[in-house]
Design a protein that fits this description.
Layout lengths: L32 H32 L2 H28 L2 H24 L5 H30 L4 H29 L3 H19 L18 H10 L2 H16 L3 H12 L3 H25 L5 H18 L5 H29 L2 H33 L1 H24 L5
Helix pairs in contact: 1-2, 1-4, 1-5, 1-6, 2-4, 2-9, 2-13, 3-4, 3-6, 4-13, 5-10, 5-12, 7-13, 8-11, 8-12, 8-13, 8-14, 9-10, 9-13, 9-14, 10-12, 11-12, 11-14, 13-14
């Protein structure tokens, strides 16, 4: 039997920027001391995580010779989020986000150190990568909702939207640097050092979190435990179109289009024959477009559902358009533009969901969003990898682009006709 439903105050108006920001204020949230420290550690960590992701995927492809095996790696890492994601949101609402993040980053560092030791001693096997991916998935269950909500504790409501854009920018800038460095390492000395770098970066993050000025955090009181907390969050989220529709589109995008690195490995190895360095280059091009999208999102004045829908539709359409491009430069250019659209969707959806949810329930709402966004990749990774083996990499990319484009188009028509969302 569920406990009594809590009454949350109505969500305040979604913050908008009344006038276009001067360029010097594009990342105005970095004025906050705690957020500057967090953003710096986040930037280092993202570079290292991208290095590990590229090295991991390429090593699995070389050890197994199968794109499907790369997809299984994605599934192993994201399946725990699909199964246990809401539980992570409960923990984020009930306990210190800073402490949870420290525990998660220390655990991730140990996982990276294990992979590094195995790779450098030439004893790394595919099953080792799968096992560590599962452990990292369990870490992500707690890390992601805690990280999402902790941003608000760092900057408060006034700078929340801008801080989300800064986080997206650092993530994409790291995604620009990390794959390029990983590609160079793979070609020069192998992928083991990429895992070592990530282990060091994780422990730097733990140290930086310890240096925050705790008295300056905008800490929300913990939500007391009660029965029916997850059901309450689902009902709360589903009643709000600004949460429901980004949530639904995130599920479609996650399953069909967010496991793009799996297919890019196939393009680098089977379609264009450009090797590990080329694989890193393709991921770098996607990140370059995403970086531009992140900067644009930081300067966007209006936060609208329409932006989320258009971003999702264009991302899918560009992937479908790129699928059979015979020219590597044209394919790379389309990947960069698709990265811009993907980031526009992801940042706008994240901002809309966060600013539409009250603080007392935000951890659970964000865990549900993370569950579909990351957990969907647990389904999409092996599906796209399997389709690449069965149909070929190009047909798999075409399929992965067409479905999100159609879903976004259908939702756009639904909303345009004035039907109640």
């Amino acid at each position: 039997m569920a406990g009594p439903a809590r009454s949350y105050p109505p969500t305040g108006p979604i913050a908008v920027v009344g006038e276009r920001l001067p360029w010097k204020h594009t990342f105005i949230s970095l004025r906050v001391h705690n957020f500057r420290l967090f953003a710096a550690s986040h930037f280092i960590a993202v570079i290292a995580v991208w290095m590990q992701r590229i090295a991991q995927d390429w090593i699995v492809l070389q050890l197994s010779g199968s794109v499907a095996a790369v997809g299984v790696t994605v599934a192993m890492q994201f399946l725990p989020v699909l199964v246990l994601g809401p539980w992570g949101g409960l923990m984020a609402d009930r306990f210190s986000k800073r402490r949870l993040l420290q525990i998660c980053q220390a655990s991730a560092g140990l996982c990276a150190a294990v992979l590094g030791a195995l790779a450098l001693t030439h004893t790394l096997e595919v099953w080792h990568v799968y096992a560590v991916a599962v452990v990292l998935g369990l870490v992500t269950v707690l890390d992601q909702p805690s990280r999402q909500v902790f941003v608000n504790e760092l900057v408060g409501p006034d700078y929340l939207r801008n801080a989300i854009s800064v986080n997206s920018t650092t993530f994409q800038l790291g995604g620009l640097i990390g794959p390029a460095v990983a590609g160079a390492l793979l070609s020069a000395v192998g992928g083991g050092w990429a895992f070592v770098v990530n282990a060091v970066a994780c422990f730097i993050t733990v140290a930086m979190l310890s240096l925050l000025r705790v008295h300056e955090l905008f800490t929300a009181p913990p939500t007391p435990k009660s029965k029916g907390m997850l059901r309450e969050a689902v009902h709360y989220a589903w009643r709000k179109p600004t949460i429901r529709w980004p949530w639904a589109l995130a599920a479609v995008i996650a399953v069909f289009a967010l496991s793009l690195p799996v297919l890019l490995a196939g393009y680098a190895d089977h379609v264009f024959s450009i090797g590990a360095g080329g694989y890193g280059m393709l991921n770098t091009l996607v990140a370059l477009g995403s970086l531009a999208g992140a900067v644009a999102s930081a300067r966007r004045r209006l936060l609208r559902l329409q932006t989320v829908v258009v971003g999702a539709g264009l991302y899918g359409a560009l992937l479908a358009l790129a699928a059979f491009m015979p020219s590597l430069p044209v394919f790379g250019a389309l990947m960069a533009v698709s990265g811009f659209c993907a980031l526009t969707f992801l940042t706008s959806a994240n901002q809309l969901v966060q600013t539409s949810a009250n603080m007392g329930i935000r951890g659970r709402v964000m865990s549900l969003y993370t569950m579909v966004l990351m957990g969907g990749q647990a389904l999409g990774g092996p599906m796209l990898g399997g389709l690449a083996e069965l149909w070929g990499t190009q047909w798999a990319l075409l399929f992965g682009g067409v479905v999100p484009a159609l879903a976004a188009g259908a939702l756009a028509l639904w909303l345009r006709r004035g039907l109640r969302p």
